[in-house]
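Appendix C: a fully annotated inverse folding record. The material below is reproduced so that readers can follow the format used throughout the book. The structure is listed first as tokens, followed by the designed sequence.
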């Protein structure tokens, strides 16, 4: 009897196991999971900012302190450096394969370089502290984002207490500059004053530019072509003199006016850009987003992938602004990357968890699911994705105790170990 009961229990257990299968862990879902393929120690000094991938040339451009390091991703070696910078912030590449643009923050300029020789060929002055910048292929223009100094922000509303400059930069009444550069002339076409504290910028490749706010739950969108047309119209108007002016005076004014950048103040006066030209409008994020910490755009399918401060990723429709999906991701996400060929979305949360969250998109149903959480390295939060082969690149370093500043418990300092700056290549 006991033996028969034991056999019956084992049979039921087997059937139960077949009927109930616990859901797989996200890292077990892909048939070919992502993994760290290579780690390349490239050295260098100082803090790093963003990086940009050139798929055609298989080169990775890294803003690292006072230089831009150029890494050949086929060999994992440094192909060269772009020097003479006060502090590299971001890199944008044109669609000709010939030139690149670096926002040199402390020097208040954009540096133009030749991608073949890696030599700088021009320096274009901007507003103070340029950071994010993008090259927009349809208009052929470069858009540079800078936070306006406190003295140039819209005045505070009645009843609001005064704030310090550092607070004002993130206040709801803060303003930002977007400097528009004409690469054909290596000069500034004009500057736009926008209400709000702006940060990371992207383009959809189809004429639209997107810039995330750092003080509200929204992403700014505008038409690059419309902005260029408005600025050139203003320049033409400024070049004309009254009919009573002499011919020589008209010609001199026209020549001066054609070269003078225009300033478009589109703050709206109340911290909104609704009355701005150029098709400016805000795409709102969820009320609990906590401002976008990074985002990417799928221009072909009209989707925005935005990482929020509340550890979620929102997928938005660029045409309607409606939320398509909401997914939980890790903390400390600084950048989002997108592989348009395979439909993978990557969230680099190296600032806290040291993970790379991989989200897969179903193009047929337009649904999204987390398929992998890949452990990476601490502080590996800056990312670039090769749009052609889907390889992902992160950078970080290794910290150790700073023995030059001895101290007791709680006062020990950490510093980067010399030569530990590294590129992490991830593939599947």
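Designed amino acids, in order:
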């Amino acid at each position: 009897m006991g033996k028969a009961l034991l056999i019956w229990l084992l049979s039921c257990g087997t059937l139960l196991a077949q009927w109930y299968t616990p859901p797989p862990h996200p890292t077990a879902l892909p048939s070919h999971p992502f993994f760290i393929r290579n780690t390349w120690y490239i050295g260098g000094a100082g803090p790093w900012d963003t990086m940009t991938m050139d798929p055609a040339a298989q080169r990775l451009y890294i803003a690292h302190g006072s230089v831009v390091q150029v890494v050949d991703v086929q060999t994992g070696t440094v192909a060269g450096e772009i020097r003479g910078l006060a502090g590299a912030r971001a890199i944008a590449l044109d669609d000709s394969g010939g030139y690149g643009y670096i926002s040199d923050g402390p020097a208040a300029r954009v540096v133009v370089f030749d991608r073949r020789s890696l030599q700088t060929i021009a320096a274009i002055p901007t507003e103070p502290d340029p950071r994010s910048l993008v090259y927009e292929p349809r208009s052929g223009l470069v858009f540079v984002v800078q936070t306006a100094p406190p003295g140039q922000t819209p005045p505070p509303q009645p009843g609001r207490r005064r704030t310090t400059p550092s607070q004002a930069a993130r206040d709801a009444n803060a303003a930002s500059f977007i400097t528009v550069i004409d690469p054909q002339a290596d000069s500034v076409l004009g500057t736009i004053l926008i209400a709000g504290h702006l940060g990371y910028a992207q383009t959809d490749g189809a004429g639209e530019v997107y810039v995330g706010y750092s003080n509200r739950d929204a992403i700014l969108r505008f038409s690059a072509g419309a902005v260029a047309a408005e600025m050139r119209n203003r320049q033409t108007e400024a070049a004309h003199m009254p009919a009573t002016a002499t011919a020589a005076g008209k010609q001199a004014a026209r020549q001066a006016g054609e070269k003078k950048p225009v300033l478009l103040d589109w703050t709206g006066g109340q911290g909104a850009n609704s009355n701005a030209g150029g098709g400016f409008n805000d795409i709102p994020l969820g009320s609990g987003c906590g401002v976008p910490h990074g985002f990417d755009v799928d221009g072909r399918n009209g989707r925005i992938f935005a990482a929020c401060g509340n550890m979620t990723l929102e997928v938005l429709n660029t045409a309607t602004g409606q939320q398509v999906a909401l997914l939980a991701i890790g903390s400390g996400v600084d950048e989002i990357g997108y592989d348009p060929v395979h439909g993978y979305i990557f969230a680099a949360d190296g600032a806290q968890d040291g993970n790379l969250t991989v989200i897969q998109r179903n193009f047929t149903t337009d649904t999204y699911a987390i398929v992998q959480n890949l452990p990476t390295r601490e502080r590996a939060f800056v990312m670039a994705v090769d749009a052609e082969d889907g390889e992902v690149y992160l950078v970080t370093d290794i910290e150790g105790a700073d023995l030059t500043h001895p101290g007791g418990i709680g006062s020990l300092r950490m510093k980067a170990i010399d030569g530990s700056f590294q590129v992490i290549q991830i593939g599947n």
